[in-house]
Specification:
Largest sheet: 5 strands, antiparallel
Strand content: 25-35%
Number of strands: 30
Distance between the termini: 39 Å
CATH class: Mainly Beta
Shape: globular
CATH architecture: 7 Propeller
Number of helices: 3
Length: 467
């Protein structure tokens, strides 16, 4: 049973939005569902996050030690344009030329600029920590548009909004200056940290060749009582920005909405919180903290707003753990965001049921990244596949299409390519299970049923025995 969110909010931001529409005609003339299947796919080594350029003609895909650009003009015939690797071997990398740059799991694009951040996780050792900005006016030949920007902290995700780059900056010491100078723990753990990591949102101006940090905001500034909660339980996992509203997924500390009309001085708007501080403070052993990190409640992994600003969705990445209430794979909560200072919970889209929903089991079916567009939700569920939901009734989302191949595909994200026509979804081998291929897929935006869909609950489908 879903746990009702506890909302903490202030009224200050006067934002106005319009109502979302619906793409799909599901009227009485629809008497049967057509077969649903991918339009095309192409292999991409190390594929993780995928995004689509403003013109809808190119997809950009993070690939662990680089990125790829793919021509998606014809979604039925994908063409890989470029797959840059070993990014700092570029002669334009300046003082960082030749340094290793790894664990690249995210990319973001806007105004013909591509941002490539990394590493995505802490403890990566002696590798470049920061981000690169590319000119992708010719996506077949990406060119560094500025010197690499070193942050000193790992970057799991980021977001580009015009000339601004929003970065999730975990493992930043409380005494680091607003202008930079942050450091990692020497051994990649939190045992050496004397000042609590602040895990802030950091805002950069990337409009020119000289990248400049212009602002920060941290949960600990707003609610200092969370300082004593283990840093990984208040991890700032992702950020999404639309119409001067930033949405921050702060894991067990909840989802925050900020007014970033002045990006140098973000202001709190509201907070959605499923956990309680007292319980989070009680987790003090490594095993308890790990279980709390992996299991519900909480696990605010990815939060986003639709194109009208009327709908907020919060995805929860979770597994079955030993903690009470940590009852399996996380779903996606849907909120009415007509008033950003007072979001209203409407429904939950549950994750597909899997045979073994523990972290070390398979298939993984928990929610991952998604997009809200034109009143529809395009979602990824790792081996649980990809789905389309009609959100015209927020209290009763309607599933329109679902495609999965759990032994071959583990989906990282789903992004609209051409509204009303097609979307892209990246499959990754960067998971706990064996078998998934790293590929970029395209799918039609239409309702339908997959022919002979494979089971996610039959243990025989995932058996590794050769007998």
């Amino acid at each position: 049973m879903r746990r009702r969110a506890v909302l903490q909010a202030t009224g200050g931001a006067g934002l106005s939005f319009s109502v979302a529409g619906c793409l799909f005609d599901t009227g009485p003339e629809d008497v049967s569902e057509p077969l649903y299947e991918p339009l095309d796919s192409t292999s991409l080594e190390g594929a993780a996050e995928a995004v689509v350029g403003d013109d809808g003609e190119t997809a950009y895909v993070a690939s662990v030690d680089g990125f790829a650009t793919v021509d998606v003009t014809d979604p039925e015939e994908l063409t890989v344009l470029a797959e840059p690797k070993n990014l700092l071997e570029d002669e334009n990398a300046g003082e960082f030329e030749g340094e290793p740059f790894l664990d690249i799991l995210d990319v973001k694009v806007g105004d013909e600029r591509l941002v490539v951040p990394g590493p995505a996780n802490e403890g990566m050792g002696d590798v470049f920590h920061g981000f690169l900005v590319y000119d992708v006016s010719d996506p077949a030949e990406p060119v560094l548009a500025a010197e690499p920007y070193e942050t000193g902290y790992h970057i799991h995700n980021c977001f580009v909004d015009g000339d601004l780059l929003y970065v999730v900056a975990n493992y930043v010491r409380a005494d680091s200056s607003a202008g930079g100078g942050s450091t990692l723990a020497d051994d990649g753990t939190d045992d050496n940290i004397t000042d609590a990591p602040t895990n802030p949102l950091v805002v950069f101006d990337i409009s020119g060749g000289d990248i400049e940090e212009i602002g920060r905001w941290s949960l600990l500034e707003y609610d200092p009582e969370w300082t004593d909660v283990d840093w990984i339980l208040r991890y700032l996992h992702d950020v999404y920005v639309r119409d001067d509203l930033a949405v921050l997924a702060y894991w067990n500390a909840g989802t925050f909405l900020l007014d970033v009309s002045d990006p140098a001085d973000p202001q709190f708007v509201s907070r959605l919180l499923e956990t309680d501080l007292e319980t989070q403070l009680e987790y003090d052993t490594r095993s308890e903290i790990r279980d709390a990190q992996l299991g519900l409640p909480g696990n605010d992994h990815y939060s986003a707003v639709d194109d009208t600003g009327e709908i907020l969705a919060i995805g929860r990445e979770s597994w079955e753990t030993g903690l009470e209430g940590a009852d399996g794979a996380g779903g996606i909560d849907i909120y009415d965001l007509s008033d950003p200072s007072d979001p209203v919970y409407r429904s939950t889209i549950d994750a597909p049921e899997g045979y073994d929903e523990s972290y070390n089991g398979e298939p993984w079916t928990t929610s991952h990244n998604f997009e809200l567009r034109d009143g529809e939700l395009y979602s990824s569920w790792y081996e649980g596949g990809v789905k389309i939901h009609d959100l015209s009734d927020l209290e009763s989302p309607e599933e329109l299409a679902w495609w999965r191949e759990p032994t071959n595909g583990s989906f990282w994200t789903a992004r609209v390519l051409e509204p009303g026509e097609s979307f892209v979804a990246s499959s990754t081998a960067y998971t706990n299970t064996d078998g998934p291929e790293s590929r970029l897929y395209t799918f039609p935006i239409e309702s339908g049923e997959q022919a002979d869909p494979p089971s996610l609950t039959d243990s025989g489908v995932f058996s590794s025995d050769d007998e």
